[in-house]
Amino acid sequence: MELHILIDGTRDLGGQLYRQLSEAIRSGRLTDGQQLPPSRLLASQLGLSRKTVSDVYDKLGYEKLLVGKVGVGSFVQTPHASPQRRHASAPLASAQRIARWEATPTPLRRASQETPARYAFIGGRATPAHFPQDEWRACMLHALRQGGQARGRYGPVEGLPALRAAIAGHAAFSRGIHCTEEQVLVTSGAQQALHLLAQTLLEPGDTVAVEEPGYPVARAVFASQGARVVGIEVDEDGLMVGQIPDGTRLIYVTPAHQFPLGMPMSMARRHALLERAQQLGAIIIEDDYDSAFRYEGRPEDALQSMDRYGIVAHVGSFSKIMLPELRLGYVVLPQAIVAAVQTVKYLSDCHTASLGQHALAKFIGDGHLLRHIRRCHDIYAGRRERLLHWFNGPLAPWFRLVPASAGFHVAALAQAPLDIAELQRRARQADISLYALASFYHGPARHEGLFLGYGAIDKLDIDTALAKVLAILQEIAPVSVSAAASGSVP
């Protein structure tokens, strides 16, 4: 690439070149250690004599802005106190809109970017060490060969046919989903699926019903479209359908494993939800984020498989069961909105990157995904058992677990008034990351407690970490001897 230098006219050629190079180095536009073009090449590009360019390089070298290496070239040497160039900002007509976006909350963003503690009970994150790297590498090599046949062309907006067919088969096998591959839209993770549905279905002022507590990112996505987001309480049977207000256009639920409390939605409540949505003409978004891992009880069909009205959009993701950085997910769309959502997807990003799609299609087709899920299921089951042991035993005087039969997180409700923030602070000093349930409530938290993910913490580390948590609790919230006797330290 040519170095961006503008030479105007025929006067003071060396001065023009010097001033532009000096300003570019001092402002940081040319970074420290960056190599400049050889004097002969730059002279040819700018239509100058080589001597003019060489003289400028020498002057910059004298000022210690360039350093020459014999036989190699000339390299930028940024001054230690390089002043930052300030850009004047003109008043913008969209200033209020920009300010609203700047003020829009980005829940869970900080938690996902922070440096994890040695013992991290973070949710929604798997252990990378258990991912089948060799199998995935072979699938990526296959994808590179497939990509070579279609290189230089955009892919289909709805996703590669091979992956859509693989997803339709996988969803039917594992979740009882009834769909054709034409209803499957490949997305860059579940979050993009939520955003596409919100863009397609919502106008400013429309009402969206979400679970309270619930997934705060979903609430933020709907609110960003100007929607009126209404929190609906949950009980042991899931979303309290009777609280869904008239005029609701969209209903967001996590029926397989309520986020963050963990209980499944009862069958009676599911039927009631479908009937209420049909009366309203509303679309239900079923977020099926971690239902692949079930530890007890009979498996339940997805809400979409019970849908007789064509109103359930089933959202799934491979980020939780594989790796978050893959950014691959999908949504099984009701037939009535397939074309509209595809249009929004096309205008959003044209299509999801094809290389990962080719690899994932082969990964699913060759059976690697199911084998990976089975292998991880046994690992997560062992970790879950350790959590149950501690919270049903030594930690029982302080916390009560919400019954959950799937996923890889549990919720622990405080048994008595407890300073959760102080517990978190003391735990972090012991290199333990704990997460409060209160952060998943939009309004005042009805229940204080902890959200405990066990996808990213080893089984043996759970014992070490919770022994330290027990010691902290005994210091900040001591209980009577009779209460503490409800469990014994292993």
Automatic annotation (TrEMBL):
<dbReference type="InterPro" id="IPR000524">
    <property type="entry name" value="Tscrpt_reg_HTH_GntR"/>
</dbReference>
<keyword id="KW-0808">Transferase</keyword>
<dbReference type="InterPro" id="IPR015421">
    <property type="entry name" value="PyrdxlP-dep_Trfase_major"/>
</dbReference>
<dbReference type="Pfam" id="PF00155">
    <property type="entry name" value="Aminotran_1_2"/>
</dbReference>
<dbReference type="InterPro" id="IPR036388">
    <property type="entry name" value="WH-like_DNA-bd_sf"/>
</dbReference>
<dbReference type="InterPro" id="IPR051446">
    <property type="entry name" value="HTH_trans_reg/aminotransferase"/>
</dbReference>
<keyword id="KW-0238">DNA-binding</keyword>
<keyword id="KW-0805">Transcription regulation</keyword>
<keyword id="KW-0663">Pyridoxal phosphate</keyword>
<feature type="domain" description="HTH gntR-type">
    <location>
        <begin position="11"/>
        <end position="79"/>
    </location>
</feature>
<dbReference type="GO" id="GO:0008483">
    <property type="term" value="F:transaminase activity"/>
</dbReference>
<dbReference type="InterPro" id="IPR036390">
    <property type="entry name" value="WH_DNA-bd_sf"/>
</dbReference>
<comment type="similarity">
    <text>In the C-terminal section; belongs to the class-I pyridoxal-phosphate-dependent aminotransferase family.</text>
</comment>
<protein>
    <submittedName>
        <fullName>PLP-dependent aminotransferase family protein</fullName>
    </submittedName>
</protein>
<keyword id="KW-0804">Transcription</keyword>
<dbReference type="InterPro" id="IPR004839">
    <property type="entry name" value="Aminotransferase_I/II_large"/>
</dbReference>
<keyword id="KW-0032">Aminotransferase</keyword>
<dbReference type="Pfam" id="PF00392">
    <property type="entry name" value="GntR"/>
</dbReference>
<dbReference type="InterPro" id="IPR015424">
    <property type="entry name" value="PyrdxlP-dep_Trfase"/>
</dbReference>
